[in-house]
Amino acid sequence: VTESEVPSYPLALLNLMEERYVSSGELSLGIATRCGVESSMFNLPADRLLKALLTHSPSPKTIAKEFLRELGKCGSPLVETLAEDVYSEVSTLAVDDWAAIVLQGLEEHAGESLLDSSVRNPGGPKTPQDTVHPTPNHRRIEEVGELLVQAKRSQSALRDLVMLRDGDYCLLTGLCFFPPTFVPARCAHIIPFSIHSKTQTFPAIETFSGFALDAETIQNHLNHPRSALNLESNAHDIMDKHTGWGIEAIYSDDQWKYYYRIVRRDRLSATTRLKDGDEIHFGAGIGGRQIALPNPRICNIHLAVCRVSYACGASEVFDQFLDDEDDEGCQVPVYFGGPFVSDNVLMRKLETLLV
What we know:
This protein is mainly alpha-helical. Helix content is 42%, strand content 8%. The protein has 13 helices and seven strands.
């Protein structure tokens, strides 16, 4: 086993489990449930979720090794040995042979679900707000230092910083943020501010990213231009609520370049002019050389999370919840991580959709 081949072993096993489910209707790994609850109807097949994580993670080897570590705890000596061999990169078995033997060992040993993968959307307060004025005030480049301090607690300060960096128009639609013909600017957080108090979320991101992002970096960038861009409302919602698109950062010609990547073609904004793979030009504003561009690792992690959410089917469940809230005519923002409704209340609402 070489380092690059490690993820192929768990993937082969998960593919076999999927084939078994199609033919027999039995889930080899049971269900992935939400952290902090004993039972929940908001469930996804664990093998489907794990396959999505392995396929779209920026560090599939890290996810694969976490999976192998848990696999070795199933109680079967045979499976434990096979998992350890791949984990240590010493297995001599072919990928498909290894997967078939492991699945057989699991079936012979298991009386119940073998693994429990936990998933939870963070929740928590939204970014601090100090104004709802539809158009931010023009700020001078001399104010950058002051704005960086204010942005830690002020959404409008962060929005002004990003506008100084990128200009007074939406990077996806080209629509202007100032009168006479304008749309309101909405500051989008690439990593949601709401995770700042969620202790379980930070290690999850560290593992998912292969420790390319550590907890300190995430915390420092939660309300910072390195994790923000200004968008027109529709483009913002498709990214924020529906995880429909993301930003891919690629290092090329001695600089980072950023590209618009569509994740969900069933959730596209009619106002967005960019096509999949088009470059997003950050830094075109008067403060473009003074204010940091989005962190490439944060962009790529967000894109990977969007792809996992869509691949495992979680996005469809969230869509149904949001659509039902719209039908009920809710007058306050009700969404995951929103300030008015707790995470548990939202998850109970989701569960009723799956009954």
